Backbone:
């Protein structure tokens, strides 16, 4: 059982982290603010089920992930939001683009964020879960209801698409 | 030394993420030992990963908005107390302004306890009197309502593709198995003339819609008639609820008449209970007998028939040639009693100019004649712009204050509405359409629900919700406007500030000459639509 005061403290501490995850998963700031509020509202209602021996961050980010993935799914009517596994793998294998590596300096962070926001949902969501939430391929796969290799292929494709977008902007 | 082929981009990506299974990772590391190009690739991938992670991690807005805690039981009680406090405060303001408020306008006040008591008493009487007659149709109505609900449910299920088919099938089975033929309401409609011929009898309540509606036969139930020209010559045992450009009632009505139209005329009509009418011209022609009260609002109101109890009239010109057994209460510019008018009780006139109350010789008032000047009515009679009067601005301030307090309460109880927004033009159109549908459909549904005693509470609730929605709609839009005004990367200010700013803009906008009413209408519909969307989303979530 989490007390009101403890919850308020958690809220202050993790709001930005949750907002960030919402923003990257949903791609836009304004719905993300509403989503963050909704996530904390759900967490508040479910606070009795929180196990205080475990980190709050993991719990709240799990709620956030499920909520935002639900929102993304609802936006799209297609049954397979994350595409076909073998297609994505073949595409990933075929694309041997130059890795940007050090080119992505700190000054380009805003540009990188915009490029991520512009990615199609099927690439953006796994990429954000991996690099913002620090989720393993296994966790991503189970959250999105896909296989582990499918998740890996989508992340690889996401990076390839980013390289293309950022290179175009540099050129 | 044999060299293994270079790993694919997919394998390299997974390795850089530390996600390659142990055996594959070992093989790849063996390859790396001998391949400088792949080592460089992996190094670049890792720094790319670090760059992406730091880009994603940084730069969220620094301001953390207040947590919008949901209401608990204590909160609900507080909200109720708050609502009462707002009501009491508004009532206090109203009474404090009493000196300034013309007595003739007092009946408009929602805080006038006498008017409220009247409303409840007549509601109770309505239930008591009409209830017995309607009891027989309750079961049938319930069956009809269940059917309608099932059909609506089936429609909703159709929109949800997966579970839909199964649900729809089961609903169709239930509908097919349902006993037929029991309908509490007969419906007749056409694009042209809708008629009930003379000699025809309808043993049900009747809903008649058409360009012209002529009821020459008898209806043993209530009659709801809507059309450009509505004529009722036959007898109706229940109530008549009718609206049209021209509404004429010439038959015998067992219950009450609720009528609205540009011209609303009763000729040789007999009404068993009360008459409520509104329109440009409301006329109770000679030979008309109203057993109960007659209440009318309009530009010109003339009463040539007889009214069993009181006449209450609000409008520009009032002319009485007939008789009222008890009091006649008139708010308006002119009040004229012509021979052979008879008023059994008092004549109460609230006018702009005392000279405009004329009782011709041959007209009789048995009680007192109480005539007083009502400032607001006098002001209406005066030519000149409403913008030139200081009282206009005072009223707008009162309106702003009331809207602000109600808005604060609304946003406090429903925190989600603080951030309600229209993402794009599509959303705005959607909200507008929802608002329009709600604004039209809800009162119609409420009216139809009121026909039976089961539906009556539902109808009253529906009508209340509708009125609240119309009022709160503009407040929701005001919050949206205020919020978009003060939006900045540092976050939005407290909702009270955005609400107040938005309300000021809304009140100025809806008072603009020529286009103000249009702006007001659009805002109301938009806000109503947003409220509907919000409520339906919330309902959807809790399912």
Residues:
């Amino acid at each position: 059982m989490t007390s009101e005061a403890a919850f308020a403290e958690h809220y202050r501490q993790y709001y930005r982290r949750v907002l960030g995850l919402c923003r990257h998963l949903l791609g836009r700031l304004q719905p993300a603010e509403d989503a963050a509020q909704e996530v904390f509202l759900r967490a508040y209602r479910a606070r009795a089920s929180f196990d205080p021996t475990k980190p709050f961050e993991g719990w709240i980010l799990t709620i956030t992930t499920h909520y935002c993935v639900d929102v993304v799914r609802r936006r799209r009517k297609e049954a397979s939001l994350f595409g076909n596994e073998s297609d994505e793998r073949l595409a990933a294998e075929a694309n041997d683009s130059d890795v940007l590596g050090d080119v992505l300096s700190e000054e380009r962070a805003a540009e990188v964020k915009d490029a991520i926001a512009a990615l199609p949902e099927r690439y953006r969501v796994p990429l954000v879960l991996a690099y913002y939430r620090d989720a393993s391929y296994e966790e991503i796969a189970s959250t999105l209801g896909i296989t582990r290799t499918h998740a890996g292929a989508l992340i690889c494709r996401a990076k390839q698409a980013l390289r293309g977008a950022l290179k175009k902007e540099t050129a | 030394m044999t060299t293994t082929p270079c790993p694919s981009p997919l394998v390299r990506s997974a390795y850089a993420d530390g996600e390659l299974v142990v055996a594959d990772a070992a093989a790849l590391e063996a390859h790396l030992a001998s391949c400088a190009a792949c080592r460089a690739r992996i190094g670049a991938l890792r720094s790319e990963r670090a760059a992406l992670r730091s880009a994603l991690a940084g730069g969220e807005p620094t301001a953390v908005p207040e947590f919008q805690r949901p209401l608990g039981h204590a909160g609900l009680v507080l909200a109720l107390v708050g609502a009462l406090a707002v009501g009491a405060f508004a009532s206090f303001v109203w009474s404090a302004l009493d000196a300034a408020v013309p007595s003739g306008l007092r009946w408009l006040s929602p805080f006038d306890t006498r008017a409220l008591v009247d409303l409840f008493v007549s509601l109770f009487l309505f239930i008591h009197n009409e209830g017995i007659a309607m009891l027989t149709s309750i079961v049938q109505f319930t069956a009809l309502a269940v059917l309608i609900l099932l059909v609506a449910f089936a429609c909703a299920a159709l929109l949800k593709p997966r579970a839909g088919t199964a649900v729809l099938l089961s609903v169709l089975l239930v509908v097919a198995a349902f006993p037929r033929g029991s309908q509490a309401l007969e419906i007749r409609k056409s694009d042209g003339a809708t008629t009930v011929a003379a000699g025809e009898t309808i043993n049900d309540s009747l809903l008649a819609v058409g360009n012209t509606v002529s009821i020459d036969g008898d209806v043993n139930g209530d009659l709801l008639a809507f059309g450009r020209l509505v004529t009722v010559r036959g007898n109706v045992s229940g109530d008549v609820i009718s609206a049209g450009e021209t509404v004429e009632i010439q038959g015998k009505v067992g219950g009450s008449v609720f009528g609205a139209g540009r011209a609303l005329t009763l000729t040789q009509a007999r009404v068993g209970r009360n008459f409520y009418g509104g329109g440009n011209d409301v006329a109770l022609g000679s030979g008309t007998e109203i057993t109960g009260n007659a209440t009318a609002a309009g530009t010109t109101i003339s009463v040539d028939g007889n009214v069993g109890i009181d006449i209450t009239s609000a409008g520009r010109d009032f002319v009485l040639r007939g008789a009222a057994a008890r009091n006649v209460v008139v708010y308006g510019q002119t009040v004229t009693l012509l021979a052979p008018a008879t008023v059994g009780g008092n004549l109460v006139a609230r006018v702009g100019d005392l000279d405009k109350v004329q009782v011709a010789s041959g007209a009789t008032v048995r009680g007192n004649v109480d005539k007083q000047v009502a400032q607001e009515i006098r002001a209406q009679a005066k030519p000149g712009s409403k913008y030139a009067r200081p009282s206009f601005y005072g009223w707008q301030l009162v309106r702003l204050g009331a809207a602000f307090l109600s808005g604060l309460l609304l946003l406090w109880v429903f925190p989600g509405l603080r951030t309600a927004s229209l993402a794009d033009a599509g959303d705005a159109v959607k909200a507008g359409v929802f608002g329009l549908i709600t604004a039209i459909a809800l009162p119609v549904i409420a009216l139809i629900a009121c026909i039976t005693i089961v539906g009556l509470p539902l109808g009253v609730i529906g009508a209340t919700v509708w009125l609240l929605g119309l009022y709160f709609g503009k407040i929701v839009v005001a919050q949206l406007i205020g919020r978009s005004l003060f939006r900045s990367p540092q976050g939005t200010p407290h909702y009270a500030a955005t609400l107040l700013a938005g309300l000021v803009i809304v009140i100025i906008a809806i008072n603009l000459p020529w286009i103000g009413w249009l702006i007001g209408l659009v805002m109301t519909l938009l806000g109503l639509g947003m409220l509907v969307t919000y409520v339906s989303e919330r309902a959807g979530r809790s399912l």
User: Anything to note?
Assistant: Residues 4-26 of chain A form the longest helix (23 residues). The helical segments of chain A are 4-26, 29-45, 56-75, 85-94, 109-118, 121-131, 137-144, 148-170. Chain A touches chain B through 52 residues (CB under 8 Å).
